[in-house]
Amino acid sequence: MYATGYTEQDIVYVPIAGLTGDNIQEPIGQKCSWYKGDPLLTVLDKIQLGKRFPEGPLRIPILDKMKDKDLIAHGKVENGTIRLGDKLAIMPSGNLAQVMGLLDAKGQTVLHAAPGENVQIKLNVADDDQI
Q1: Residue 4 pLDDT > 70, yes or no?
Q2: FRET partner for 44 with CA separation of 20 to 30 A, picked from 13, 18, 25, 104?
Q3: What CA–CA distance (Å, rounded) separates 119 from 106?
Q4: What is the pLDDT at residue 69?
Q5: Taking 60 as the threshold, does the pLDDT of residue 1 lie above it?
Q6: What is the per-residue DSSP string for the chain?
Q7: Whether domain 62-130 has CATH 3.40.50.150
């Protein structure tokens, strides 16, 4: 087992040539006769994704932040559900914040966001440099 938690069965090697596009969408054929597997896009399509749990702990990787009148954090809900008024712990510092506003990917105000949704979160934080 690797230090990341993956095993040998979790790793797939796919030879590709990015400049010529070999084995990205179409099988590589005779150029790489030792490889009998699928092209890269087929391998990616077969990957089983883990389930997202709306009732689980909230996980939102922050992609960007903006300071306006308030602090706006941009991210994608990966697990859990965020709601207007929620009190959050900013990690890794553990400092607290409160959700003062919530916008979806179209910029429309929403009351909650579930896993898989991109959000803009207006936060009430003591220190803007926490995020």
Answers
A1: yes
A2: 104
A3: 9
A4: 81
A5: no
A6: --TTS--GGG------BTTTTBTTSS--GGGGTT--S--HHHHHHTPPPPPP-TTS--B--EEEEEESSSEEEEEE--BS-EETT-EEEETTTTEEEEEEEEE-TTS-B-SEE-TT-EEEEEEEES-GGG-
A7: no
61 preceded by cis ω (within 30°)?
Answer: no
CA-CA distance, 56 to 70, in Å (whole number)?
A: 28
Provide the token pair at 33.
């006769």
Q: What is the pLDDT of residue 80?
A: 93
DSSP bridge pairs for 109: 103
Q: Domain boundaries in the chain?
A: 1-48, 62-130
69-85 confidence digits (pLDDT tens): 888 999 999 999 999 99
Report the amino acid identity of residue 32.
Answer: C
